[in-house]
């Protein structure tokens, strides 16, 4: 009888939906953030579409490095589109309610795309390592099949290893609290509402971070250490400068991406005086790279810049 009563009370208080409250501490004026966020999102979509069109149309860009850049553009647009429409709906229309399946699906897709972005950065680092340290082997090593195999591996790795994140979160018991002080369904933000033990979810989140980000970052650092060692052995300062210049755009994006990931992890774990900071940083981390990546590559890569100029001139002429 007592067990039946407990089951009855459990079903009575089990939540059926979550409410995304937005940015904590600034609910009264958070709608003003919709303007810069919407502009960033629009710029990210336009810039990445232009990058894809340019890579597709310019024969000189039919190289593995630009194929990876095209894949990165698709991942960036997917990541931004996963979160921005809902965030803008919250800020513009106060549409804060999200169903449990939608929330867990968003959690899954965000983890997939962030892991994919990390993986593509690793593939680009390997590409630069072979091009600079093993130039004679580059034409036979970094070929189209390498791009396809690396991409398929990254997709399978992230799509499969990420499945336990929403599954473990969905198995938690959410008894009464359903207000998430966030703009999106982050794993930590959601599982904090559970009334039972979330240790397994936290451990797997940590395991995933080390598996994805830790291993990727470690191999990227190793690749660039070998690149730097190889460049320092060059007798010509001009040749060394030219070799390093091909890596600058990639390094800028890597530094931004992983620095923000580390800061988000620290601020989420620590007690911060302004809780809006980690939430805002988390949102910006999912929308700034999609806008920043094509801009940095367009400015730093001569062939891409020239190809982009041709596409834009052709578009203006046709109009």
UniProtKB/TrEMBL annotation:
Gene3D superfamilies listed in its UniProt record: Rhodopsin 7-helix transmembrane proteins
Gene Ontology MF, one: G protein-coupled receptor activity
Localisation: Membrane
Keywords, comma-separated and alphabetical: G-protein coupled receptor, Membrane, Olfaction, Receptor, Sensory transduction, Transducer, Transmembrane, Transmembrane helix
Protein's membrane topology: Multi-pass membrane protein
Stretches assigned to the G-protein coupled receptors family 1 profile domain: 47-297
Bilayer-crossing regions: 31-53, 65-93, 105-126, 207-232, 252-277
A single cellular component GO annotation: plasma membrane
UniProt record, GO biological process: cellular response to lipid
InterPro entries: GPCR_Rhodpsn (IPR000276), GPCR_Rhodpsn_7TM (IPR017452), Olfact_rcpt (IPR000725), OR51/52/56-like (IPR050402)
Protein name (Swiss-Prot/TrEMBL): Olfactory receptor 56B2
Gene source species: Orycteropus afer afer
Gene: LOC103210328
């Amino acid at each position: 009888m007592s067990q039946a009563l407990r089951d009855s009370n459990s079903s009575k208080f089990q939540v059926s939906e979550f409410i995304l409250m937005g940015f904590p501490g600034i609910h009264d004026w958070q709608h003003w953030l919709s303007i810069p966020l919407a502009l960033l999102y629009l710029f990210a979509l336009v810039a990445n579409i232009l990058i894809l069109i340019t890579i597709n149309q310019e024969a000189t860009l039919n190289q593995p490095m630009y194929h990876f850049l095209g894949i990165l553009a698709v991942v960036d647009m997917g990541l931004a589109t996963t979160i921005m429409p809902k965030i803008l709906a919250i800020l513009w229309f106060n549409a804060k309610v999200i169903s449990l399946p939608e929330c867990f699906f968003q959690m899954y897709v965000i983890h997939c795309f962030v892991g994919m972005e990390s993986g593509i950065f690793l593939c680009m680092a390997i590409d630069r390592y072979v091009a600079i340290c093993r130039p004679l082997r580059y034409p036979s090593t970094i070929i189209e099949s390498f791009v396809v195999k690396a991409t398929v591996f990254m997709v399978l790795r992230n799509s499969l290893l990420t499945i336990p994140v929403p599954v473990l979160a969905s198995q938690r018991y959410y008894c009464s609290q359903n207000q998430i002080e966030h703009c999106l369904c982050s794993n930590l933000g959601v599982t904090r509402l559970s009334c039972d033990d979330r240790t397994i979810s936290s451990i797997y989140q940590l395991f995933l971070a080390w598996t994805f980000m830790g291993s990727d970052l470690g191999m990227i650092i190793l690749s660039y250490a070998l690149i730097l060692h190889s460049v320092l052995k060059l007798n010509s300062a001009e040749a060394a400068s030219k070799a390093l210049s091909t890596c600058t755009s990639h390094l800028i994006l890597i530094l931004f991406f992983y620095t923000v990931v580390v800061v988000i992890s620290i601020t989420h774990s620590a007690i911060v005086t302004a809780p809006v900071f980690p939430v805002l940083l988390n949102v910006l981390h999912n929308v700034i790279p999609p806008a920043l990546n094509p801009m940095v590559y367009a400015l730093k890569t001569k062939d891409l810049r020239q190809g982009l100029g041709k596409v834009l001139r052709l578009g203006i002429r046709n109009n």
